[in-house]
């Protein structure tokens, strides 16, 4: 059950609460309460049977205080403008917490991808690109993959954008196939980042990283790559789930075999996987398994106030965006569960997106080893900053992350206001000189 609220109210509440802690006035951060631009489009798509269907799409640009808007495009039947607006704001915070020169944006199409053929999806993506073309671009707004979109979707997006613009423009999207200007390490970046965050939080809590017992909810790009990296580092992934259900194995699942099974054919689900040692669990029970660490890496609003009391993990590392509701968060805090928040934990993807964008802009090709090293440096530094901030204010890591992000954003806003004021004063002084 999803706790009932408009998700964007959460953004507003967090802004107020964090700015108050930092001692800023509402005037100082008022602009962050309002998304700068919202576009809603009706996308006509010719279906394989010749009929015409109209899909609803969005692109929300929340803030470009720190740089061009950046954020993924998701395809899902449940999305609406309010959700995309909220996710766009989280992207603003995410970029700020890891100190990237990007603002926040998010896009989406209301569609059930399982009901469309590949060519219908391609036509949908190309038509959507066409419609949001006026507001995106390598210097203005740079989309990327998100839920149910991938490198192929980004290739269609880039190709359509480049044709409209009349020149190859790889830097307009990130998360592309390597052959089309994608970056080495991008596909696995979010998962690698999650592994780093699990490692760091284990260190702080004196929990052995090797052998830590972990449950992962979700087998999309994030869940799979997190499982792969954690398993290869010696953690025990004891439970895993996807839309079809969950599987559990006390001595640790054979992640390499499972990932191979899932990737052999598209559309394969965990319910089709069989191995003698596994026990099947209902999908909803994944989150309440008796493990050391829980990684929600599916959709948002999974850990609700109702579910939180049943959670047994001591540590949660949020792979998905907004997997914990405000009520869920409060309950977990009462229980003493430590959460590495989404805007930090899953920032690996956007960090390597940043590297991809730089490589595209300057026609560079970086080695995967260097990319992963740079990713690690940025994420570990951000983790330590968030940790210290949370200690300083005796608060949660989530609040610590918001404090860092908002301080950077509000400081930038104040500087811009100062600049405006200086320009205004300068103009005013010239006018006064002329009037003499
Ligand atoms: N969709 C990812 C996220 O939510 C990646 C965004 C990007 O690379 O721009 O962080």
Please describe what this structure looks like.
There is one protein chain. This protein has 436 residues and is an alpha/beta fold. Among the domains are: 36-171, Leucine Dehydrogenase, chain A, domain 1 (Rossmann fold); 189-345, NAD(P)-binding Rossmann-like Domain (Rossmann fold, 3-Layer(aba) Sandwich). The chain is 46% helix and 16% strand. It is built from 13 helices and twelve strands. It has helices at 7-22, 26-29, 81-97, 118-132, 151-165, 186-204, 221-232, 255-264, 326-335, 342-345, 348-361, 368-392, 397-435, and strands at residues 37-46, 52-63, 69-75, 103-109, 141-145, 213-217, 236-242, 245-248, 279-281, 293-296, 315-317, 338-340. It has a seven-stranded mixed sheet with strand order 9-8-7-6-10-11-12. Strands 1-2-4-3-5 form a five-stranded mixed sheet. Helix 4 packs across helix 5. It starts with 6 loop residues before the first helix and ends with a helix. Glutamic acid is lined by residues 70-72, 144, 146, 174-175, 321, 346, 349-350, 353. Glutamic acid (GLU) binds at residues 70-72, 144, 146, 174-175, 321, 346, 349-350, 353.
Write a short abstract of this structure:
The chain is an alpha/beta fold and 436 residues long. Among the domains are: 136 residues, Leucine Dehydrogenase, chain A, domain 1 (Rossmann fold, 3-Layer(aba) Sandwich); 157 residues, 3-Layer(aba) Sandwich (Rossmann fold), CATH 3.40.50. It contains 13 helices and 12 strands.
């Amino acid at each position: 059950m999803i706790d009932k609220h408009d998700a964007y109210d959460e953004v507003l509440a967090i802004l107020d609460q964090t700015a108050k802690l930092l001692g800023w006035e509402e005037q100082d951060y008022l602009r962050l309460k309002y998304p700068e631009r919202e576009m809603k489009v009706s996308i006509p798509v010719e279906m394989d049977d010749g009929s015409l269907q109209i899909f609803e799409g969005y692109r929300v640009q929340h803030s470009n205080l720190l740089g061009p808007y950046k954020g993924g495009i998701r395809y899902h039947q449940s999305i609406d403008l309010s959700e995309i607006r909220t996710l766009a704001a989280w992207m603003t915070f995410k970029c700020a917490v890891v100190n990237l020169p990007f603002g926040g944006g998010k896009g989406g199409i209301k569609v059930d991808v399982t009901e469309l053929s590949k060519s219908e999806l391609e036509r949908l993506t190309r038509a959507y690109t066409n419609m949001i073309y006026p507001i995106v671009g390598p210097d203005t707004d740079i989309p990327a993959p998100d839920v149910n979109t991938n490198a192929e979707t980004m290739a269609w997006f880039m190709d359509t954008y480049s044709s409209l613009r009349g020149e190859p423009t790889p830097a307009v999207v990130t998360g592309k196939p390597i052959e089309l200007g994608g970056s080495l390490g991008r596909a696995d970046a979010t998962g690698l980042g999650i592994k780093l965050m699990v490692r760091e939080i284990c260190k702080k809590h004196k929990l052995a990283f090797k052998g830590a017992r972990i449950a992962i909810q979700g087998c999309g790009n994030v869940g799979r790559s997190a499982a792969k990296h954690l398993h290869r580092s010696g953690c025990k992934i004891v439970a895993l789930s996807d839309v079809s259900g969950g599987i559990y194995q006390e001595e640790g699942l054979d992640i390499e075999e499972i990932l191979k099974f899932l990737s052999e054919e598209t559309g394969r689900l965990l319910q089709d996987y069989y191995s003698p040692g596994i026990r099947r669990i209902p999908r909803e029970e994944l989150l309440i398994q008796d493990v050391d660490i829980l990684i929600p890496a599916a959709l948002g609003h999974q850990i609700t106030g109702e579910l939180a009391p049943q959670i047994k993990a001591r540590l949660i590392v949020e792979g998905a965006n907004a997997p914990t509701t405000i009520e869920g968060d409060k309950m977990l805090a009462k229980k003493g569960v430590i959460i590495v928040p989404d805007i930090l934990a899953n920032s690996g993807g956007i960090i390597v997106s940043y590297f991809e964008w730089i490589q595209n802009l300057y026609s560079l090709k970086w080695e995967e080893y260097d990319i992963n090293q740079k990713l690690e440096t940025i994420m570990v530094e951000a983790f330590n900053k968030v940790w210290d901030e949370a200690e300083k204010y005796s608060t949660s890591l989530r609040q610590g992350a918001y404090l860092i992000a908002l301080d950077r954003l509000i400081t930038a806003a104040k500087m811009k206001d100062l600049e405006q004021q200086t320009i205004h004063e300068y103009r005013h002084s010239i006018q006064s000189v002329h009037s003499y």
